[in-house]
Amino acid sequence: VPKLRADYAPPAYAIKKVHLDFALGADETTVTADLAVEPWDAGARTGDARADLVLDGEELTLDALSIDGTPLEPSAYSHGPTSLTIRGAALPAGAFTLRTVVRTKPRLNTALSGLYYSGRMLCTQCEAEGFRRITFFLDRPDVMAVYSVRMAGPQAAMPVLLSNGNLLKAGVDEARDGPGSHFAEWADPFPKPSYLFALVAGALQHISSSYVTRSGRTVTLNIYSEPESVDALEYAMGALKRSMRWDEEVFGLEYDLDLFNIVAVSDFNMGAMENKGLNVFNTACVLARPWSATDADYERVEGVVAHEYFHNWTGNRVTCRDWFQLTLKEGLTVYRDQAFSADMSSEAVKRISDVRMLRARQFAEDASPLAHPIRPESYVAMDNFYTATVYEKGAEVIRMYAALLGKAGFRKGMDLYFKRHDGAAVTCDDFRKAMADANGRDLAQFEGWYTQPGTPTVHATWAHDAGARTFSLTLRQVPPAAAGASAPPLHVPVAFALLRADGSGEALGERVLELTEREATFTLNDVEGEVVPSILRGFSAPVHLVAQRTDAELAFLMAHETDAFNRWEAANALMTRVLLGAADAGARREPLGEVPAVLLDACRATLVERAADRSLQALALALPDFDTLSSSVEVVHPQPLCAAIGWLKKGLAAALKPELLSVYAQCAADDAATAAYSPDAESIGRRRLRDACLSYLSALDEADTTALCMQQLKGARCMTDALAAFSAASRVSGPARLEASAIFADKVKDDPLALDKWYRTRAAADVPSALSEVRELMSLPSFSLTNPNRVRAVVGAFTALNHKTFHKEDGSGYAFTAQCVIDLDKINPQVAARLARSFSAWRRLEPASGALMKAQLEQLQRTPGLSRNTLEIVNTSLQ
Ligand code: ARG
Ligand code: ZN
Questions:
Q1: Are strands 160-163 and 29-39 parallel, antiparallel or unpaired?
Q2: Residue 48 pLDDT > 70
Q3: Among 90, 471, 514, 597, which residue's Cβ finds the most Cβ atoms within 10 Å?
Q4: Which of 129, 226, 308, 396 is catalytic?
């Protein structure tokens, strides 16, 4: 039965205080919970009719149950598979303390939700609904309580005992806890929802530092990991301090406890988790050392550390009333981490990378049966809604407030939001109202961004009247099919400028046009000379922009746009046009011909320019990806689309080989001239451009280009060097491919995260034997379905990156993936459900592939015992 947003009602009872006592064991843990319960709204209570107290609880063995010290009669309660109901008649009239004693089995918890065992530690993951797998509770975010924790466990196996907040006391009490045990007591003074609870116990090591906040509070910072990774924590520590400083400077927000702990965990369903004072991270999002992390990993670590830290205000101090409001904290926090990363490196590079990701993942989701508004209307399994739409489109929606209100206006809105709602569980409407009220604006129409699914299209046409010296821009918005043709128009900020047609800069500086009607014409006066419009600068709204531009105009914009995003966009649009044309030709079985000269010339110009920012150069040369291209056409022909991408890559490489070789050599020489590895923007740009060249060159599959790959691999000084070379070598047809694989495997065999990169590259390799190679990978001793990172590295990479084999005409790629979903679902429903999303594309595939994919969905639907997570994805995909 789905939960509906419209059905929100507060619970009958509040829980204001929680004391948890853990007797920890990897095989069995006993949890004694004392809950201070009271009627939700004591003032509004009338008479004696007391509501039942219905607590959530899953996979718990109930050992004892009492109220104010008196055990409950069996007739006073009932215990079902997902709940514990205490009859109203058995409850005292006012406040009372409920004690439950339960047992859980952490080692058997392969779903990695609740309390589980990973590596050599016990740890927790509670968001969204994991706390109910630890103890009985009103497991919903509007129930906020002050928590204290006593945890005891074997000193030898669990020397480190961590929970939220401040450490009150630690010691040994063998009389109470048993021989060899020790204990710790923690207290978190801030009321919080249960999803922010955390506990970690294990043989961890850590690094320590401190940070003095703006108002003078000294905060101890610790980052913990398993002993063999403790040398890979320094970068995250620096990122944490930069985040703390940035949030003070940009938003005036300070940290509020004396201690901030981070723990790195190897088995983790997602990236990381913002538990109050005790963030828990997937090792992949926190460990970084030159030999195991790439430049992109360093950037991700910095971004995720910032994201989780920023949640302390946007998520923890102000939290969500119910899970439909998830984007309230996630969209806002992604926006904040994006702004932070932009400030730490390059705004343009960050923006372009984020939009590429948005289009590849979120636009694709919007174009599928899984499309949903950033604030969903219903869900079956909440864990299925940690989506690109809630996160990335949610961040775009926040960015639009900033576009409409300006930086200062946005800050005013944030200040009012915290002033009004600190310590409360609130809604997206509350946020919108704070933004509106702080700026004296009416943002009623803006709600459409929260209610409509799908990506809107904005058509732009223009006319220049030289005599009257006016320029008029007409914008027309068309709602996406997912929202329905009659969906009301949205409030769309369109950043706009006029460029001089001679390439000498702007005739009219940037301004934000507000499109609120279905169609509107904006007329600009006193326009001198020939001009070219610059539209949707910085990608100011998450829409498909349709502006009919000739190839020559796009080439002009590539050279003369004053907005860095739009300059990149012009290159991207030109490549997209050529690729979609070639894919069409391929689908009609026509020859693909030659790469158009205008594109060759434009790419050559990009390549040879001595750009200030080599990352921008590399991005301008990056081909549009399969998923973005797929979401921009009506019918996807996977094989012709793959062929078109391969054709363009090879065609560009062949025509530009001399330039590619020389830019490669220049970047490689500059890199060799540097001493130690550094993940600063300039060094990253140099390696990024070098590796973009190598990737193109490897497409030629010639002896000298393959030799270059092998040379870079053998001479690699860091993981970025090695992985780029290994990936490039994985595209060649000769024996070098497996030779490179062996060299890389040897480098990474003792490092799980680096080994994941080997698995991922092998699983993504576009070779005829790909499917049998993937099966082989899964039979290796180091492969395991219980580790989400490894599963994503192999099966996830196969479905997301190996388009040719995943979409193989005989359906074998789909059948293989469906079997993986079934096997995985028994172990970890969250990860299985995510994998099942790869089938949601079926409706837009050409009929033969679509039917094969649909058949796998139907087979999954018939599979007995499928989890509700996976079943929800399957059912929605088939709808
Ligand atoms: N709140 C976490 C973050 O964004 C992610 C939690 C994801 N939970 C889940 N069940 N998928 O940092
Ligand atoms: Zn988050």
A1: unpaired
A2: no
A3: 471
A4: 308
